[in-house]
Amino acid sequence: STTTTTSTTSTSTTTSTTTTTTTSTTSTTTRTIIACNPAVDTCDDGIDCTEDSCDATLGCQNLPVPGFCPGSLCQEGVCNTTSGCTTVPVVCDDGVPCTTDSCDISRGCIYTSNCNDNIQCTEDRCNVTSKACEFIPDDSRIPNRFADLCDIKTCVAGVGVVHTNATCPPPVYSCEVSVCLPATGCGYASDCPPPPSNCQFNVCSRDLDRCVPTNCLPHVNDSADSLPFSRIAPRQ
């Protein structure tokens, strides 16, 4: 036999602070109850994934058995009480805007950062706590960072690689000057002027802290004893 039951629901809604309007709606739910005898009826619906039983009041009960239907990492097994086991796609959603949500058949749900500032020297990542992109400067990501030791390269967020000339320390000796060479970086070089006309070199003597002409020839009418400079370069 078939029995139809009807239920009525009333809903109250307040539309303003001074006036209250009450609206009643009626919904009708129709459910077919299949009468059965618990002593003899099995209520078998022929669906493997349902548990069949007879309730003296509610009639035949054919309820889905949780976990009965097989699935996969990306497909959830569900029991359709009409057709049996089927699958529905697993919903991968971490609620984080800066990730792309997908499902891999061998790994399941995957949440990949979609943050990209198009700056090579930054680490782009999605902070799942703040749900926002982060771009972390990393000098080690700068291409050819040490190709020119006089060109200091620094990664700046939102900007990229910033170039700055190397600042070399001042010289210790007055006859030297600080220099920077791309291959070796900071160093020191002689700051001595050209040698006198009768000398081949004018070198910076760190012992004397001054320029010293060397490899000098005597002037006309000068004796060797009167020469102020040695023909042999002083010790450096």
What does this structure look like?
- The chain has 236 residues and is mainly β.
- Helices cover 0% and strands 39% of the residues.
- It has no helices and 16 strands.
- It has strands at residues 11-13, 21-23, 50-55, 59-64, 75-80, 84-89, 99-104, 108-113, 122-127, 132-137, 151-156, 160-165, 176-181, 185-190, 199-205, 210-216.
- A two-stranded antiparallel ribbon has the order 1-2. The chain has a two-stranded antiparallel sheet with strand order 3-4.
- A hairpin with a 4-residue loop joins β9 and β10.
Can you describe this structure in just a few lines?
With 236 residues, the chain is mainly β.
User: How do the helices and strands follow one another from N- to C-terminus?
Assistant: EEEEEEEEEEEEEEEE
Number of strands: 16
What percent of the residues sit in helical stretches (DSSP H or I)? under 10%
Report the average pLDDT across residues.
83
What is the subunit organization of this protein?
A: single chain
Spatial order of strands in the largest sheet: 1-2
**Class derived from helix and strand content:** mainly beta
Strand content: 35-45%
Major sheet: 2 strands, antiparallel
| Spatial extent as radius of gyration | 45 Å
Give the count of helical stretches: 0
Molecular shape: rod-shaped
